[in-house]
């Protein structure tokens, strides 16, 4: 076993009746990493997470957290992580402070330590003003912040976040991202599920794209973008009759097949061709063909997402 | 020891919830008051000749009915907690798996106590005077709470198995109504048709009421009380492990 891998998921499967919810998913998460499980609604992200947190038993396969098997060493495995779910799992009838203190005590802190930790978290999550009100008066964003704060009470080395920012306003989302980054900076490992590409791109070191219970692709955000076809050169020509001329120049310089669509000329680039793009520009300049747009573009994760999951939903 | 402190924390949580939300206690307080008043003033004259003469009989019936009603709340509260997702988080904590369940059931003792005391206090205000000393009065209350607590494990099990909190509430209410009305709680049973008398005789609620009535009227514990106490113990021995098992296997 590699001690650097905090999480190991090996060939897990889960069926609900006739529906295969998760099919043969495997991945590993290294210490200090933010790992994103990305996928559309109903892809199986939450089911995977529920199995990892031993709330649900997988039909086949093995999950270990810090080396503890979630099936055979459930109690030890559960002590390795903290989780924040999609709905705020906090007591509505208690105040924010009481919620934090009680979870502090349940995490093994003594009374004074639990109080102190509660104060720290209330400050961190901007909840001091409403600390002693019951949650009935809290907004959705405040609940989610408190929910994350409760997860952090025990300073977990491993944190699972199930769609931590779904339905939050942009400001609260940024606050959540900051809190997550801060935690990772202090040495924790985070697994998060999200349906927002932007979130995965911003936060995650590595992303696994899940759809229909299957792992479609896994890698760093940059790797995933490259999978779609690397960089591309896009030229928008001002006059339609100049398009064949531009096409010839690009083809001659780069030696690649060039696509045209109306006034737009595009070509996929590999690393060596990057150097020659300047030459294309120089030749176009000397012929004085007017251009509207000349750009080297990376396909966004949106392209990855749509390309990999398109037509299947 | 660690497990004990988890249970204490969980009980504390349940008591805090009750304090912030005193409405949750209204059923265990209002129900005994209403039933004691209603039955006392409506049926006192018919059944025993006067309210005063009826109260010594009624008080044991009301006490047991109130306690059972309070006990039924545990299943409903447990289900509401589970549906709210809080219990999933408890499951991922490094605590004794039984602690959240135990917290609920230890906290239930307060509900049982309050409802029992309210029933006795209402009867007292209506003119009932216990003929036994305080120790035997406490013994009767203790027996009622004990049997109520044993029953709350059954309701907790129902709460874990059924998914809908409202359904649990209404089934519990119907069950308690049938079991208490078809018992010796409020009426002398000798005027009942024979098939009903047979049911009333085997109804465990009747047995419990007889035991408590004996303590309150004679001031002595009696063999019935011992039988009820042992039955309660057996119920706990069966339903506590069963409930815990279902709680831990819950997906």
TrEMBL record, chain A:
Record family assignment: Belongs to the ABC transporter superfamily. Drug exporter-1 (DrugE1) (TC 3.A.1.105) family.
Example of a GO biological process term: daunorubicin transport
Keywords: ATP-binding, Cell membrane, Membrane, Nucleotide-binding, Translocase, Transport
Predominant subcellular localization, coarse grouping: membrane
Recorded coiled-coil stretches: none
The protein's name: Abc transporteratp-binding protein
A single MF term (Gene Ontology): ATP hydrolysis activity
Membrane topology: Peripheral membrane protein
PANTHER family, alphabetized: ABC TRANSPORTER ATP-BINDING PROTEIN, DOXORUBICIN RESISTANCE ATP-BINDING PROTEIN DRRA
Pfam family, one: DrrA1-3_C
SMART domains reported for this sequence: AAA
Record bears the keyword Nucleus: no
Domain (ABC transporter) ranges: 7-237
Any single Gene Ontology cellular-component annotation: plasma membrane
Subcellular location: Cell membrane
From TrEMBL, chain B:
Pfam family, one: ABC2_membrane
Listed GO CC annotations: ATP-binding cassette (ABC) transporter complex
Ranges for domain ABC transmembrane type-2: 23-250
Family indicated by similarity: Belongs to the ABC-2 integral membrane protein family.
Topological category with respect to the lipid bilayer: Multi-pass membrane protein
Keyword Chaperone (UniProt): no
Protein name listed in UniProt: Transport permease protein
Main location: membrane
Localization, UniProt: Cell membrane; Membrane
MF terms (GO), sorted A to Z: ABC-type transporter activity
């Amino acid at each position: 076993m590699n001690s650097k891998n905090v999480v190991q998921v090996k060939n897990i499967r889960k069926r609900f009746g006739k529906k295969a919810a998760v099919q043969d998913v495997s991945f590993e998460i290294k210490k200090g990493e933010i790992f994103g499980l990305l996928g559309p609604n109903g892809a199986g992200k939450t089911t995977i997470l529920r199995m990892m947190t031993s709330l649900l038993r997988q039909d086949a396969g093995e999950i270990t957290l810090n080396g503890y098997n979630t099936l055979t060493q459930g109690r030890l495995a559960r002590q390795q992580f903290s989780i924040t779910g999609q709905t705020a799992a906090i007591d509505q009838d208690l105040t924010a402070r009481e919620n934090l203190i009680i979870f502090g005590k349940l995490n093994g802190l003594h009374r004074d330590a639990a109080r102190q930790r509660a104060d720290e978290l209330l400050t961190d999550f901007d909840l001091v003003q409403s600390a002693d009100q019951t949650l009935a008066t809290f907004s959705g964003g405040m609940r989610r912040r408190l929910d994350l704060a409760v997860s952090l009470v025990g300073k977990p080395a491993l944190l699972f976040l199930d769609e931590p920012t779904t339905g939050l306003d942009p400001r609260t989302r940024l606050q959540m991202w900051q809190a997550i980054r801060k935690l990772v900076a202090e040495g924790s490992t985070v697994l998060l599920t999200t349906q927002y590409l932007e979130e995965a791109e911003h936060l995650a070191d590595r992303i696994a794209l899940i759809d229909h219970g299957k792992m479609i692709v896994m890698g760093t955000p940059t790797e995933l973008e490259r999978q779609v076809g690397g960089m591309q050169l896009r030229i928008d020509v001002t006059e339609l009759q100049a398009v064949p001329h531009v096409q010839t120049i690009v083809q001659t310089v780069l030696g690649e097949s060039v696509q045209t669509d109306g006034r737009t000329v595009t070509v996929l680039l590999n690393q060596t061709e990057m150097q020659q793009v300047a030459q294309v520009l120089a030749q176009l300049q000397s012929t004085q063909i007017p251009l509207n747009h000349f750009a080297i573009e990376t396909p966004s994760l949106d392209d990855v997402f749509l390309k990999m999951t398109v037509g299947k939903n | 020891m660690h497990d004990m402190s988890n249970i204490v924390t969980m009980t504390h949580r349940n008591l805090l919830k009750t304090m912030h939300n005193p409405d949750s206690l209204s059923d265990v307080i209002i129900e005994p008051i209403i039933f004691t008043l209603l039955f006392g003033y409506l049926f006192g004259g018919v059944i025993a000749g006067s309210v005063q003469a009826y109260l010594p009989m009624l008080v044991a019936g009301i006490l047991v009915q109130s306690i059972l009603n309070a006990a039924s709340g545990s299943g409903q509260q447990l289900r509401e907690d589970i549906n709210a997702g809080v219990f999933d988080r408890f499951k991922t904590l490094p605590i004794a798996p039984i602690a959240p369940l135990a917290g609920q059931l230890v906290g239930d003792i307060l509900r049982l106590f309050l409802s029992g005391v309210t029933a006795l206090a209402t009867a007292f205000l209506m003119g009932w005077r216990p003929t036994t000393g305080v120790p035997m009065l406490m013994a009767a209350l203790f027996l009622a709470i004990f049997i109520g607590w044993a029953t709350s494990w059954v309701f907790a099990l129902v709460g874990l198995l059924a998914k809908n909190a409202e359904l649990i509430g209404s089934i519990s209410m119907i069950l308690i109504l049938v079991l208490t009305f078809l018992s010796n709680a409020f009426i002398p049973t000798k005027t009942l048709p024979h098939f009903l008398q047979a049911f009333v005789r085997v109804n465990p609620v009747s047995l419990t009421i007889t035991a408590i009535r004996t303590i309150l009227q004679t001031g002595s514990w009696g063999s019935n009380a011992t039988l009820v106490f042992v039955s309660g113990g057996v119920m706990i021995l069966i339903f506590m492990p069963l409930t815990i098992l279902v709680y831990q296997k819950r997906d």
